[in-house]
Structures are given as C-alpha cells and as structure tokens.
C-alpha cells in the first residue's frame, strides 16, 4: 500500500504546511489516529454507526438500461447516494467525530462549499452531542440556501465567510484561523482527502469502505475484478475511497473525472490535475490552480462540490506514478450525464457525480471490446434541483 | 554575519530591545512602502518586516487580510517587492525581513528566490505556513547566501519541537504570543514568559514576540521578557486610516515612534 512517509508525503506531495500553533496538535492527532487503527473497540464503534446509522453497506447495482445504451460497457453503480444525508460524506464525518471524542474535544468546526460536508458534519455532531460551527463562503450561502437551513436545523452555527473570493477555499482559510485560535477544545473535520497530514490519510481510510465493499460485491457478482473504476474528483474523497482497495490490483484501471467547467482551455474550470501546477495550499503540497505569481485562482464548476482550485495530494501522486488517469468533463456534459442517468435508470445523481456518469459515454467509445466498470454514485441530486431547473425541458 | 545579526549584536551590547514593525508591501503602493521603511528607520525601527501579499493568508486576521487584498489588486508580486527592497538599499542599511506565505516562494523557485532576495538586499525570511520539517531545501539555500531563516515558536510548541525550531532559526526566533491569528485581541498569557525563558535556555539567538501587540504599553511590557517586539496589524490599520492623505507617511511614522519609544529608554 502506498502509505505516506512519516511526515505525510506521497512522493513530493502532501506534507504539513501549517502555522506552528497547529503542529503539536497534528502530531497528537497522528498518534491517536494510528493507535485507533489498531483499536478493535474503535473499529466496532465506527462500523456500528456506518451500518446502523448511515445505512451501510450500500448496494452495488447493475445499471442494465444504462449499460445497454452505452453498448460497450457493463456498468455497476456503487450507491453511496443511499446513505444518510444523501452522499458519501457521512462516512468520513462519522469517523472523524469519533476521533474527536476520543481526543476529548468538545467543539467541531468544518468548512463547506456546497453544504454537503457541512450537513454531514452537523449531522455527526448532533448525533454525538457536540457543538458545531460550519464556515461557508457568503457566495455559497446564497447559492445553497437549503443546505444552510439543514445545518441550522441540525443545531450547527453557520458562519458566512466574506473574505477573499467568498467560496470554499476562503471557508477553509477561515476554519483554519478558528482552529489556530481555539486549538485547545476544537476538532477540525476536514471534508476531503486534503489538508495537512494526517488528514489526507485519515479521510481516505474512513472512505476506503466504499472500495472495500465494492470489490467484494463485484467479485461475488462477476467472479472477477472490474476493468475500470470511475469517480468524480473535486478534493477527491469519494474517488480515493473507491480506488484505494484496488490499488494493488494492477489490471483495474482508475479514472478520476475533474470538472472542466466552461472548458478545459478556458480560465473557468476546476481541473488542477489536468491544468494546474504544483503548489502549497491549506496545509499540503499538491496540484493547484495558481497564477504566475503563485496566487491561488478561483475555480469554476456547475457542481459546487467540485468547485475547488486544489485537489488531495494522493491524487497528485496517483497521477504522477500513472496509477490513475484523470480526465475532465464540462458543465454542459455533466448536465447531460445527470439527465442520462435520470431517464435510463430512474436515479437522479448529484451534479458532482454527474461528471463521472457523463464520462462513461466517452469511455464507451474508447474501449475496444466489452468492459466492466464500477462508478461511484457519490451523491443524490435532490440538492441540485434549483440549479438544474433551467435545463429541464417540459 | 548579515544585517539582522549585526543589529542584534549591537542591541545586545547596548542592552536594548529590538523594535520590528510590519507592513504589507504595496499597500497602498510600493512607493509609499519605500518611504515608510526609510522613515521607520528614523523612528526607532531596528528591523523592518515586509509582508508579501497572498491570496489565502490563513495565519492573518482581518486587518492584514484586507491589506493583502488591496496590494494584490494593484498587481503586487514578489519580483516587484524585491525591486523595491533594492531601491531602499540605495538609501538605507536597515535590516529587512520578508514575511511571506510559502506558495509564492515555492512557485518562484526556492533557489532563485534566495538568490534574487540576496541580490536585492533582503536579510531574512519568515514563512508562517512552513515549519522546519518542510523547509530543509530552503534552509540550505538560505545558509549558502547568509539569509536568516526565522521560524516560529507558539504557546502550543512542545519541548521536542522547540529544540528543532531553535536550531533551524537564524537571525531571530519568532514567538507567537497566543493561539490565534495576527491582530487578535487576546490576553497576553503569563505562561508565555516561561516559554520564552525556556527557549532562551536553549540558545543565544534572540527571541522576538509578535501577534496581538498593538499599544505602546503592551510593547513595553513584552520587551521586558523578550529580545524584540513585532507589531503588524496595528500599524497596517494606521496606514489604512491615513489612506489618500498627504501626511500618511508622517502620521504612521509618528505611531511607530510611540511604539518604539518605550523600548529605547
């Protein structure tokens, strides 16, 4: 397994780039997380909540009509959209909130873009009876009013972030500032495989259940391993969650789908793996959208959950060593993917997930003979109804 | 020995403490930055910290965030700041430390940055999101050209880390007075004195204290337990308040003088 080194490096990526105030805490977290990995009681507790509360295991569903439409692909959907709160995010927040409790922290903070991670965090905090503060860009608060109400209903305090570009990256800056200030009693639940070590590893490990289940389920149905894994990549937690268990299965090809926004050759996209440079933001070194002065650029995607100038360091590593391939899908194609799955299978996927669905049409043309594929259906689309209204034809 | 080290040596001989003002380079513009640095020298600044604006300054509070945004809107970048330092060097030998987040340096290229910084007359670098663990290559490059690498100690720093930080630091060590961001209004904890003393036992390198120091009284009090005092947000606030005024430099310098005065008795 491609474990990071002691300082959390995946090759040249990853690491710990944070103010000194947080370093001792990260060392503590690392130690506790390591000990919990071998702790049976912790594992039982985590498994209990995943099963009884979140609804695991999720189905691996053979999408027959979609497969027929695509002709060359036999598609299985890993149904993370079945989970409580409607997306894979809950796997991670349940894991981290249990770690927070073990560390004796009483206050949870989180950043959120679309609000999905914020809702999943507020949910886990409510479940454990912990105080919860969610930072959200004021732009996003307007775009995702429904999720703001959800978080507030769950008892979380949602703090609008008005600095910088007023979106996800600024929400993360503000969460880190809060963390530096309240480091004694506060646990920061990061929503993706990003941030300083050990977060990328911790989030990956909590999401790895997706791939572990899918691998088992696929083998029992097909008596072999799939040819392809496909998942959307913003920060990249659902993709890494699916990919990780297959890392050593060298013949299984992995494809991460980034958001090409208005086009990969415009400035309006969110595809740092395709078009970014190496850089350091929010605690780790990875691929980033940045200017020639090393300033961070604002990303664009129709899917708020992919609207991120950075990406998890382990994805940058997977790309670097050639273990996974990364492609990008435009806003327009994503909407087509959303409609495709809705009409062929009666499943409305999240706009983020729709990027992965949309790529299947391209993959279908690429493969020479019939191939099998698992797609991570990371979330359901109810949250996006307002946004896709203009695209619905009567 | 670079200008920072010479300055501390001289201060030690005189049994004085260092006063270190911080301003964001390019706010309101680089010409004013140059004038302020030159004028601060006359107002008791022993070293000047120049902030390199960054789009995502996660260790900074609202004052310096806003100041960075203003500078970025004017197209300020590392190259332009280095040119300004070179211009200052034609007129003054006041030690200058650049305070920057890591990404602009990383993107510029560590070796090239150190070479260009040295050529323009920079004496030290301070990078709040770069702990010594990730700074090995930068430290190596900086040592070669005698540029000081200033690292941070925080109230949360463990004794094991303290050793490592003290060792990696040259010029001085930056003690963060509280758990928080720049400009915060938090009580100065009495535990700080013990921590600063502990660092002092490990090294002869000067320990300077920053974050949240905004008044002459606070500066004076902190100087009693440290080798130097760093004030940033309070000065940046004054610059913003005097924006567009003809006596901006004069007014801000007067404020700097009130802060430094208490350290010079």
Task: Tell me the span between the first and last alpha carbons of chain B.
Answer: 27 Å
- Form type of chain A: globular
> What does the main sheet of chain B amount to?
9 strands, parallel
Give the overall pLDDT of chain B as a whole number.
96
* Total helical elements of chain B: 12
If strands are numbered along the chain, what order do they take across the biggest sheet of chain B?
A: 5-4-3-2-1-9-8-7-6
Q: Total number of β-strand segments of chain A?
A: 14
Name the quaternary structure.
heterodimer
| Dominant shape of chain B | globular
Query: What portion of the residues of chain A fall into strands of 2 or more residues?
Result: 15-25%
CATH class of the largest domain in chain A equals Alpha Beta
Uncertain stretches of 5 or more adjacent residues of chain A: none
Detail the poorly predicted runs of chain B. Answer: none
Order of strands in the sheet with most strands of chain A = 3-4-14-9-10-13
Reported by name, the CATH topology of the largest domain in chain A is Rossmann fold
CATH class of chain B: Alpha Beta
In N-to-C order, the SSE pattern of chain B is HEHEHHEHHEHEEHEHEHEHH
- CA-atom Rg of chain A in angstroms: 19 Å
The structure class of chain A reads alpha/beta
The beta-strand count of chain B equals 9
Search tags:
heterodimer, A: Rossmann fold, four-stranded antiparallel beta sheet, 16 helices, B: 265 residues, alpha/beta, TIM Barrel, 49% helix
Description:
The complex is a heterodimer of chains A (394) and B (265). Chain A contains 16 helices and 14 strands. Chain A is α/β, with parallel strands linked by helices. Chain A folds into 2 domains: 10-50 and 89-203, 3-Layer(aba) Sandwich (Rossmann fold); 57-87 and 208-391, Rossmann fold. Chain A has a 6-stranded mixed beta sheet, with helices on both faces. A 4-stranded antiparallel beta sheet of chain A has the order 1-2-12-11. Chain A has a 4-stranded parallel beta sheet with strand order 7-6-5-8, with helices on both faces. Chain B has helices at residues 3-14, 30-42, 62-73, 78-89, 102-108, 110-120, 136-144, 159-168, 191-202, 216-223, 233-241, 248-261; strands at residues 18-24, 48-51, 96-99, 124-126, 148-150, 152-153, 173-176, 207-210, 228-231. Chain B has one domain: TIM Barrel. Chain B has a 9-stranded parallel beta sheet. At the A-B interface, strand 2, helix 1, helix 8, strand 11 and strand 12 of A face helix 3, helix 5 and strand 6 of B.
């Amino acid at each position: 397994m491609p474990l990071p080194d002691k300082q959390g490096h995946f090759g040249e990526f990853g690491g710990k780039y944070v103010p000194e105030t947080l370093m001792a805490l990260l060392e503590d977290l690392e130690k506790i997380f390591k000990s919990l990995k071998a702790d049976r009681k912790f594992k039982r507790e985590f498994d209990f909540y995943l099963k009884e509360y979140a609804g695991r295991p999720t189905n691996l569903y053979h999408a027959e009509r979609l497969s027929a439409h695509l002709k060359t692909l036999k598609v299985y959907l890993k149904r993370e959209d079945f989970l409580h709160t409607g997306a894979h995010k809950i796997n991670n927040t349940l894991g981290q909130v249990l770690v927070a409790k073990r560390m004796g922290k009483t206050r949870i903070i989180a950043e959120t873009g679309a609000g999905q991670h914020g809702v999943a965090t507020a949910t886990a905090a409510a479940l454990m009876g912990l105080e919860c503060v969610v930072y959200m860009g004021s732009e996003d608060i307007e775009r995702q009013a429904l999720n703001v109400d959800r978080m507030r209903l769950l008892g979380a305090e949602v703090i609008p972030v008005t600095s910088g570009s007023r979106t996800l990256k600024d929400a993360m800056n503000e969460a880190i500032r809060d963390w530096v200030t309240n480091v004694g009693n506060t646990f920061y639940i990061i929503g993706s495989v990003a941030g300083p070590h050990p977060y990328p590893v911790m989030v990956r490990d909590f999401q790895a259940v997706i791939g572990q289940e899918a691998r088992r389920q696929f083998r029992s149905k097909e008596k072999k391993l799939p040819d392809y894994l496909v998942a959307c990549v913003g920060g990249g937690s659902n993709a890494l969650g699916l990919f990780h268990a297959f890392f050593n299965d060298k013949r299984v090809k992995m494809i991460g789908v980034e958001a090409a926004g208005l086009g990969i050759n415009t400035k309006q996209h969110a595809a740092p793996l395709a078009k970014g440079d190496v850089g350091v933001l929010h605690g780790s070194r990875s691929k980033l959208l940045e200017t020639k002065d090393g300033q961070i650029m604002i990303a664009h995607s129709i899917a708020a959950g992919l609207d991120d100038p950075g990406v998890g360091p382990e994805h940058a590593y997977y790309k670097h060593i050639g273990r996974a391939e990364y492609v990008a899908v435009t806003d327009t194609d994503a909407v087509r993917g959303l409609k495709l799955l809705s009409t062929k299978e009666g499943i409305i996927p999240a706009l983020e997930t729709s990027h992965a669905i949309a790529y299947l049409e391209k993959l279908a043309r690429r493969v020479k003979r019939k191939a099998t594929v698992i797609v991570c259906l990371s979330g359901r689309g109810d949250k996006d109804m307002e946004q896709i209204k203009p695209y619905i034809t009567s | 020995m670079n200008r920072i080290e010479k300055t501390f040596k001289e201060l030690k001989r005189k049994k004085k403490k260092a006063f270190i003002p911080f301003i964001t380079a390019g706010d309101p513009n680089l010409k004013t930055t140059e004038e302020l640095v030159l004028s601060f020298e006359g107002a008791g600044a022993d070293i000047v910290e120049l902030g390199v604006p960054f789009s995502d300054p996660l260790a900074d509070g609202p004052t310096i965030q806003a100041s960075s945004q203003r500078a970025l809107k004017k197209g300020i970048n590392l190259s332009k700041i280095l040119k300004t330092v070179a211009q200052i060097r034609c007129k003054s030998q006041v030690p200058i430390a650049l305070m920057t987040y890591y990404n602009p340096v990383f993107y510029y290229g560590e070796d090239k940055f150190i070479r260009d910084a040295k050529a323009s007359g920079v004496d030290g670098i301070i990078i709040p999101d770069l702990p010594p663990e990730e700074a090995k290559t930068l430290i190596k490059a900086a040592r070669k050209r005698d540029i000081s690498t200033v690292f941070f100690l925080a109230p949360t720093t463990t004794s094991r880390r303290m050793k490592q930080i003290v060792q990696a630091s040259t010029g001085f060590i930056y003690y963060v007075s509280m758990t928080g961001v720049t400009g915060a209004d938090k009580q100065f904890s009495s535990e700080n004195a013990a921590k600063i003393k502990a660092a002092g036992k490990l090294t002869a390198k000067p320990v300077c204290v920053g974050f949240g120091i905004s008044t002459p009284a606070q500066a004076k009090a902190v100087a009693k337990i440290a080798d130097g005092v760093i004030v940033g947000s309070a000065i940046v606030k004054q610059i913003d308040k005097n924006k567009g005024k003809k006596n901006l430099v004069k007014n801000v310098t007067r404020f700097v003088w009130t802060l430094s005065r208490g350290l010079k008795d």
